[in-house]
Amino acid sequence: MMDDSLHEFLHVPENPTGAGLVLTHGAGANFRAPLLVAVAEAFCAAGVRVLRTDLAFRRNRAGGPPSPATGPADRAGLQAAVQAMRREVSGPVLLGGHSYGGRMATMLAAESPGLADGLLLLSYPLHPPGRPDKARTEHLPRLTTPCVFVHCTKDDFGSVEEMRSALALVPSCPALIVVEGAGHDLKRGKFDLGGLVEAIGCLPSSR
After folding, report:
1. Which domain holds residue 168?
2. What does the pLDDT look like over 16-57, one tens digit per residue?
3. Cα 48 from Cα 162, distance rounded (Å)
4. Is residue 90 a part of any domain in this protein?
5. Is 2 part of any domain?
């Protein structure tokens, strides 16, 4: 039986590189999401210390889905997790998230440049499904942290073409990895994760 009181899990590599990654989930998931587990295991195998963590709205059992009201607490929780990870490793610390978690990561990095050394954004939700007029890109021009975005060809939250247009707003010249034939869940992590880990190698190796 799963212990529902737990809200995070730490992956400790056998051969650490000194790098760390804080990874969080989307609006309808938690730190146990199969995509997060798969990504965390791939990075841990490459020597990265990985913390899968719940956002604040998920830690609050009385709360429902995230909303603009939960955003500040969600970002504060991620900030604390990154700061804690930095005390545990000697190398770069990355911050990543799926969907809503990735949006919170980008907003936090825009608010606090230099907090993380790089961002890993999985299925960034450019807009609600069917509502391209409700773009979630207003903060992207303030995002100076190096980024890797992973997007699929069947994502209802924004097409690959829309993603390319949005990334033109980001000053840090982000990289884009396209996963063919996947939906917003990115095949629950069943794609070339080795290629993803390799792509993150383009991020700074030190602060």
Report:
1. 8-200
2. 999 999 999 999 899 999 999 999 999 999 999 999 999 999
3. 31
4. yes
5. no
